[in-house]
Task: structure prediction
Amino acid sequence: MNYLETLKNIAKNKERRVENLVLLVVLLVIILVASQFIFSSNNKNKSNSTSNNVNIDSSKTGSLDNASNINTELEEKLSNILSQISGISDVSVVITYSQDSKQNIVYNTVEEEKQGEKTTEKSVAYNEESGSKKAIIESVEMPKIEGAIIVAKGASTVEMKSKIATAISSITNVPVYKIQVFEKQG
Result:
């Protein structure tokens, strides 16, 4: 007898229908709670035992200036390259970002097991140079570009605006609909 037939038989029995539905709901709630508990404890164990580096906001580590320099350099490079397109001159580019750059800092992880309980201690890994400590940075994640505005002389036709938007899209990997191109006055 398969499960579908069993459910049909339970539903046909009018005398015990309410009891069976209550029992079914209680079983579903128990299964949901148990699965939530099992999966959440697995995720905690994995994150404690395998994580050696944590994302730290760059503004907390003091390299925000470096990120803004990189962002400014990108805007300048885009302005320069767009100025080289025939019929386009005096280009200004502004790029918006969804987040700041992030640094992945290396952590020393020590796991101890006492009386059946695991404890994990993390401390930042430092590099000492001439008496000063600097955190060891594994990698830096660049900020995500969300959109761009370009203002340029000669961007009066739809064709020229399309060329500019396509060029910016191909460099920044931002969809064309998130790029606005306007003609500069004067």
